[in-house]
Amino acid sequence: MAIEKLTDIRIKKAKAKNKEYSISDGGGLYLVVRPNGNKLWRIRYTSPTLHKKRLGGLGKYPAITLLQARQKSREYHKLISQGVDPIDQKREQKYQNTERTRGLFDNVVDEWLNKTKSNITAKTRKNAKSMFVNDIKPYLKHNYIKDIKHRELVRAFEVKNETAPAMAEKLFRYCNDLWKWACTQDLCEYNIMGNIHKKSIIPPRATIHHKTITDLKELKRLVNALYGLGSNHSKANALKLLLHIPLRASNLTSLKWDYVNFKDRIITIPRQEMKMKDPNLQDFILPMSDEVVKILINQRESIFTR
């Protein structure tokens, strides 16, 4: 019995029912009518590679018209006659398109920062992103990370080292980590950072070691000097806090009021913001002495009364 071909009028008259049903157009092409009224094009065919029935989606009616659906059906059958599975080819094309955009330098940076967010703080991610955009991107002549040349990066490092040597070292480290990750993800052939001689671009800085203060009188002079800087100055309060609580400078400068509990007299810093980010460890809890409470209250009042 010959299958009655679909027409636009017949499609428009197809009403929704309690259950999903389909109307065939022949050649495996048919229209699915769902209970909510949506009408979807489908094609059923036998895969030339898997040798089993497969179901492909061709889009939604009326966005895809009857003529367009039939054209897509013919394209499916042409591929099948050539021994190509249409669904597999569509997936491969989508993958290739994704990989092309994924390899763009900006996208690689974003993906790398997102993948490593559990190992670095939000502040570090923000700083790294800013440095890639402002200190690396202007010197790149290529959009894809696999095409970027040594000289492009070397020039960026040289310029940064002229104005901020310490930040140039960070930038070099960020780039090295980025290219290692990109190689692991098969986004570039090799880590070009491995062939850049860091010391010739960013000479090592002289390290100045200060002796530990062991003389009580000298320590007293230091404490008095810090307390004489002015009680309403943020830097002065930060230096005072360093005398009383064992925090790294990065943790101290990024300390938030949400972490301070005056009632229980404790400071709680989330584990992910500490240097040791082991998720199995508890958040860093620090008790506050009377002097620490006094300094923090002074700091809060100086901020909110300006």
- The overall average pLDDT, rounded, is 88
Computed CA radius of gyration, to the nearest angstrom: 32 Å
The total beta strand count reads: 7
Structural class: alpha+beta
Q: Which percent bin holds the helix content?
A: 40-55%
Low-pLDDT regions: none
Largest pleated sheet: 4 strands, antiparallel
Helix and strand run: HEEEEHHHHHHHHHHEEEH
Explain what you see.
The chain is α+β, with helices and mostly antiparallel strands and 306 residues long. The chain folds into 3 domains: 8-100, Integrase, DNA-binding domain (Double Stranded RNA Binding Domain, 2-Layer Sandwich), CATH 3.30.160; 104-200, Tyrosine recombinase, N-terminal domain (DNA polymerase, domain 1, Orthogonal Bundle), CATH 1.10.150; 216-305, no CATH class. It contains 12 helices and 7 strands. The chain has helices spanning 8-13, 66-81, 86-102, 105-115, 122-136, 150-163, 165-184, 198-201, 216-227, 234-244, 249-253, 290-304, and strands at residues 21-26, 29-33, 39-46, 53-61, 260-261, 266-269, 284-287. Strand 5 (260-261) and strand 6 form a beta hairpin.
